[in-house]
Inverse folding.
């Protein structure tokens, strides 16, 4: 380990501990990053649940041994899903405008989930982000957490010359949110939180095929459009480059430091 400035101690995973008034302060929270590539929705959901339950177990152990803090581990997952509609726990199934037979004919899966929100679509060239965070290490304010996720997207859009906005009373990121008839949603969000551990997250339309949204009422919101980075800019984007911008902005907004996972299970064993 290398030394640091006076009053600090080096730590092997790349963040610094500062001692002040007998308290230990993390300059940046470590978050373990993994890009899952293209993965079926069910497999990614199961993997999130596994990580969430591991953190809940760590908190339970800590509760029984209060000396020290919970040894939870923060994660950020990126993934693209084959075409799938997902319905939030408070969503209305009538917001899916086609039946099972037609969905199957179009190769679209469907899941009722345990996240918040209504119906949305995931597909290729859409960046889905799943933060599995212990909010007790960030902020125990769900509203602030969602605003922070929105800010990550807004900053990333700004890097391409687009003005992302919030819409009062609605979660996610929009363009022209305050202009009736011109509102366009570019990023949907829906989360679950258990014992301050998060899962699910955001779906950011990059080069996404928007025709799939024609068969649902996106997020259960009538008479508002859905858009993508490609549609707004008039050309396809380099998705790996955009992911790097997202990661940098996530670190900035959450005061986090991303670490690539070093040893990982094979995709087929993610949820085992």
């Amino acid at each position: 380990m290398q030394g640091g400035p006076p009053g600090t101690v080096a730590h092997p995973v790349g963040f610094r501990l500062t001692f002040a008034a007998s308290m230990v302060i993390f300059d940046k929270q470590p978050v373990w990053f993994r890009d899952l590539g293209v993965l079926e929705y069910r497999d990614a959901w199961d993997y999130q649940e596994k990580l969430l339950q591991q953190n809940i177990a760590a908190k339970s152990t800590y509760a029984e041994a209060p000396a020290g803090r919970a040894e939870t581990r923060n994660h950020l997952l990126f993934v693209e899903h084959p075409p799938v509609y997902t319905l939030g726990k408070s969503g209305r199934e009538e917001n899916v405008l086609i039946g099972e037979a037609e969905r199957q004919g179009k190769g679209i899966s469907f899941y009722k989930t345990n996240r918040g929100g209504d119906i949305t679509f995931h597909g290729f060239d859409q960046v889905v982000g799943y933060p599995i965070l212990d909010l007790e290490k960030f902020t125990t304010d769900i509203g602030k957490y969602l605003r922070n996720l929105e800010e990550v997207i807004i900053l990333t859009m700004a890097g391409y010359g687009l003005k992302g906005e919030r819409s009062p009373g609605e979660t996610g990121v929009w363009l022209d949110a305050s202009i009736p008839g011109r509102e366009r949603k570019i990023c949907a969000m829906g989360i679950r939180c258990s014992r301050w551990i998060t899962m699910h997250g955001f779906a950011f339309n990059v080069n996404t095929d928007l025709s799939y949204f024609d068969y649902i009422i996106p997020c259960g919101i009538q008479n508002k459009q859905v858009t993508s980075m490609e549609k707004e800019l008039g050309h396809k984007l380099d998705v790996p480059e955009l992911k790097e911008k997202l990661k940098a902005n996530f670190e900035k907004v959450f005061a986090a430091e991303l670490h690539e996972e070093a040893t990982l299970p094979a995709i087929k064993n993610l949820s085992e």
User: Anything to note?
Assistant: Residues 147 and 245 are 18 Å apart (CA to CA). The longest helix spans residues 41-64.
